[in-house]
Each structure stands twice: as C-alpha cells, then as structure tokens.
Amino acid sequence: YDGQRAQVHRLMDGSIKVFSRNGEETTSRFPDLVKISSESSKQAAETYILDGE
User: Which stretches make up the ATP-dependent DNA ligase family profile domain (predicted)?
Assistant: First the structure.
C-alpha cells in the first residue's frame, strides 16, 4: 500500500466532490485538492471525473 485511490468529480453545478475507492464521499478531507481542481478547470469542462491514486 503506497497511496490512496480517489475520484474527483466536477458536477453540473460546478461543485467538486471527492470519493474514496469504496464510494465514500471524502471531500472535506481534501480541501487543497478541491481548490486546485476548481481553479484549474473553470473553463475546461462542464463536468468530469478524475480517477487517481
């Protein structure tokens, strides 16, 4: 085990949600990730899902 798997979702309303491998919403644990995701995708996409570890 050397990382934490996460999915970052940008929803239609522009909000960012972070989910664990098991589908648990973990957004509140990653405020920096939410900020970076929000700032870097303002005009790039209406919605998206990023999957990473």
Answer: 1-53
Q: Which has the closest alpha carbon to 20: 36, 7, 29?
A: 7
What tens digit of pLDDT does each residue of 24-43 get? 999 999 999 999 988 887 77
Cα dist from 23 to 6, 8, 27, 45, 53, whole Å: 9, 11, 11, 23, 14
Q: Where are the alpha helices (DSSP H) in the chain?
A: 31-40
Question: In angstroms, rounded to a whole number, what is the distance separating the alpha carbons of residues 17 and 25?
Answer: 7
Domain ranges, ordered by start, for the chain: 6-52
- Give the span between the Cα atoms of 42 and 45, in whole angstroms: 7
Kindly state the tokens that stand for 45. Answer: 């996409």
